[in-house]
Amino acid sequence: LAHVEAIIKSMTKKEREKMLNELKKGDKVVTIGGVHGKVVSVKDDVVVLKIDDNAEITLKGCPKAALFNTT
Question: Which residues pair with 50 in a beta bridge?
Fold first, then answer.
C-alpha cells in the first residue's frame, strides 16, 4: 500500500485525473479506506468492486478520487 501511495503522490493532478477517468472493468484498485478489489462496473458516481469470490461492494456517491488504480 505504501508503494501505491508513493506512486499516487508523485503523479501530477492532470495524470491522476486521467487515470481515474479511465477506470474500467477489470482494473485492480485500492480504496482510500484500504479495501482491495477489482472493478466490476463504473457508471456515473457508482463503482462496483469485487472484493472476494462471492462478495461485491457498491460505492455510490464515492468520488473516483477515493480509488487508487493498481493495475
Answer: 38, 56
β-strand pairing of 28-31 with 46-52? unpaired
Q: Which of 62, 69, 60 is nearest to 26 (CA)?
A: 69
d(CA 57, CA 6): 26
Is 28 in contact with 69 (CB distance < 8 Å)?
yes
pLDDT in the model for residue 29: 87
How far apart CA 12 and CA 71 sit, in angstroms, is 18
Measured between alpha carbons, how far is 9 from 58 in angstroms, rounded to an integer? 26
Higher-pLDDT residue of 3 and 31 is: 31
